[in-house]
Amino acid sequence: MFDTIGCACAITCATQPTTLLAINWNCALFRHPDTGHLWFVNSLGSGQWDWESANEIDPRADQFAAAEVISDHLDQITYLLTT
Predict the structure, then answer these.
(1) How far is CA 23 from the centre of its chain?
(2) Distance between CA 42 and CA 48 in Å, rounded?
(3) How far apart, in Å, are the Cα atoms of 62 and each of 8, 32, 48, 54, 77?
(4) Is 14 exposed, middle or buried (0-12, 13-18, 19+ CB in 10 A)?
(5) Measured between alpha carbons, how far is 4 from 63 in angstroms, rounded to an integer?
(6) What 3-state class would DSSP assign to 83?
(7) How many CB atoms lie within 10 A of CB 8?
């Protein structure tokens, strides 16, 4: 799983086949494979990711409204790519 200690995937793998690199937020956004909720993983730079800090976007976060729109778009993109 993506948050397993020692996970070293670059950014995409079977657990998150559709990932959005959000440079302005310094993270990547992806759907949690079990819940379908939008999660983030912080960038450490140089293509490294802080998988231990990966988490769902908190509803109290300033970016939550934007994250909901992004989540809907990721759903649409995933649907289009798989049909």
Answers:
(1) 12
(2) 9
(3) 29, 20, 25, 17, 24
(4) exposed
(5) 26
(6) coil
(7) 8
Give residues with Cβ within 8 angstroms of 75, minimum separation 6: 31
Q: What is the pLDDT of residues 44-61, one digit of tens each?
A: 988 788 888 889 998 898
Output the DSSP codes for 19-74.
Answer: EEEEGGGTEEEEE-TTT--EEEEEEEETTEEEEEEEEEPPTTSTTHHHHHHHHHHH
**Does the pTM of the predicted model rise above 0.85?**
no
Contacts of 64 (CB under 8 A, 6+ apart): 57, 58
Whether 74 shows a pLDDT value over 70: the answer reads yes
- Residue 3 half-sphere exposure toward CB, CA atoms < 13 A: 13
Question: What whole-number distance in Å separates Cα of residue 62 and Cα of residue 76?
Answer: 23
| Residues 41, 51 contacting (CB under 8 angstroms) | yes
